[in-house]
């Protein structure tokens, strides 16, 4: 659908209609990942209090889920070798933070690396210095990362490439936890940007 | 009132043109390639990306079957795919551009993956990428290296 959209003029109309259809599908919950999201809410990955992972931040500090209670937290999985989807997610989050303005001060944003082998705390710090400074990175041993992904009900899979290198498939949504530590919503990569900030605000309104 | 509305309209049409430089555009036969850009890299270990817009003014399908560039030894065509909330990158053999249509390689969809990077991509520089088309043959375009934070070409497409 996005394919034909770039011819100016006539095709712009086609693109606009396609966009509206996409929004329609989103609103009606027909898209496959929305059904996945619905299953997630209320089951595993729904409550920080019940999680037991421990990770290391890009600043070298040990972090546990309980340390996030009391503030709204955005969490997403990714890795710094990811050339397309992860920069896009980081840029989206930067836009949301900008739109929230001073309200974003009470917000914590965390990228959990699904590539602990390459993403050491130092590598994360170097990479994240290119994005909004409020975004922190988390990594750990492969076992620690696996535990965290399991707690968040996120999936990732290392995919070897022909040249001996590898890439990682991973859950791409941004999870929003309210200050009580409960999963409030998930913002999908292809979610209409205008729904993202209201989702974050809804979580922030849940005072402890 | 009418006057200020008219002035605003004029401004609205002028501003986008002056805010962006015009994209480099290369035409060969029925194919026009434009808005080629990439993101700056940290060192050479990570793969870089390549985004571009391809227009086909011909009467039949054209196919992009590969890319080549001196900055990477293993450039490939990829697509980011979302499945059950998970992002996956898959290799694509070809990208079809329908007659009188355009296809964009853009964030979150089709993109060039520049693996085995030979040189760090520095913001503000350009590098050549050759697109290999089934019918139109190779088309080379200068690709702008934008900041790591860029999400689209920094030029206005004259499509």
TrEMBL record, chain A:
Domain named Thioredoxin: residues:
39-208
Q: Which GO terms describe its molecular function?
A: metal ion binding
Binding of Cu cation occurs at 82, 86, 170
Question: What UniProt keywords apply to this chain's record, in alphabetical order?
Answer: Copper, Disulfide bond, Membrane, Metal-binding, Transmembrane, Transmembrane helix
- Segments spanning the bilayer are 6-26
**Disulfide partners:** 82-86
CDD domains per UniProt: SCO
The cross-references to Pfam families, in alphabetical order and at most eight, read: SCO1-SenC
Q: Does the keyword DNA-binding apply?
A: no
Q: Which family does it belong to?
A: Belongs to the SCO1/2 family.
Q: PANTHER family, alphabetically? A: ELECTRON TRANSPORT PROTIN SCO1/SENC FAMILY MEMBER, LINALOOL DEHYDRATASE_ISOMERASE DOMAIN-CONTAINING PROTEIN
Q: What is this protein's record name?
A: Protein SCO1/2
Biological source species:
Paracoccus tibetensis
From TrEMBL, chain B:
Q: Transmembrane region positions? A: none
What keywords are annotated for this sequence in UniProt?
Signal
Q: Which domain of life is it from?
A: Bacteria
The record, for InterPro entries, names: LpqE-like, Lxx211020-like, PCuAC_sf
Q: Which Gene3D superfamilies match?
A: PCu(A)C copper chaperone
Where is the signal peptide, in residue numbers? 1-21
Protein name listed in UniProt: Copper(I)-binding protein
Organism listed in the record: Paracoccus tibetensis
């Amino acid at each position: 659908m996005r394919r034909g959209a770039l011819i100016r003029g006539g095709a712009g109309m086609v693109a606009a209609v396609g966009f509206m259809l996409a929004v329609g599908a989103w609103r009606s919950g027909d898209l496959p990942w929305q059904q996945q999201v619905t299953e997630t809410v209320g089951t595993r990955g729904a409550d920080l209090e019940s999680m037991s992972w421990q990770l290391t931040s890009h600043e070298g500090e040990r972090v546990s889920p309980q340390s996030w209670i009391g503030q709204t937290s955005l969490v997403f999985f990714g890795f710094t070798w990811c050339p397309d989807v992860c920069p896009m997610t980081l840029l989206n989050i930067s836009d949301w933070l900008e739109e929230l303005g001073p309200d974003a001060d009470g917000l914590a944003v965390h990228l959990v690396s699904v590539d602990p082998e390459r993403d050491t705390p130092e590598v994360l710090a170097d990479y994240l210095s290119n994005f909004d400074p409020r975004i922190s990175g988390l990594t750990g041993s492969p076992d620690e990362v696996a535990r965290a992904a399991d707690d968040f009900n996120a999936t990732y899979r290392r995919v070897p490439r022909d040249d001996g290198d590898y890439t990682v498939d991973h859950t791409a949504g941004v999870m929003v936890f309210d200050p009580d530590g409960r999963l409030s919503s998930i913002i999908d990569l292809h979610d209409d940007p205008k729904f993202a900030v209201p989702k974050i605000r809804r979580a922030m309104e849940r005072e402890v | 009132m009418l006057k200020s509305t008219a002035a605003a309209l004029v401004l609205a049409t002028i501003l986008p043109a002056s805010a962006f430089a015009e994209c480099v555009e290369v035409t060969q036969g029925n194919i026009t390639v434009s808005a080629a850009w990439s993101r700056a890299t940290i060192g050479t270990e990570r793969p870089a990306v390549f985004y571009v817009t391809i227009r086909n003014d011909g009467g039949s399908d054209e196919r992009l079957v590969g890319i080549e560039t001196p900055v990477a030894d293993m450039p490939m065509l990829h697509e980011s795919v979302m499945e059950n909330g998970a992002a996956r990158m898959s290799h694509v053999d070809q990208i079809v551009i329908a007659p009188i249509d355009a296809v964009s390689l853009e964030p979150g969809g089709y993109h060039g993956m520049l693996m085995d990077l030979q040189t760090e991509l520095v913001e503000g520089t350009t590098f050549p990428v050759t697109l290999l088309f089934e019918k139109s043959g190779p088309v080379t375009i200068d690709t702008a290296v934008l900041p790591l934070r860029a999400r689209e070409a920094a030029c206005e497409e004259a499509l």
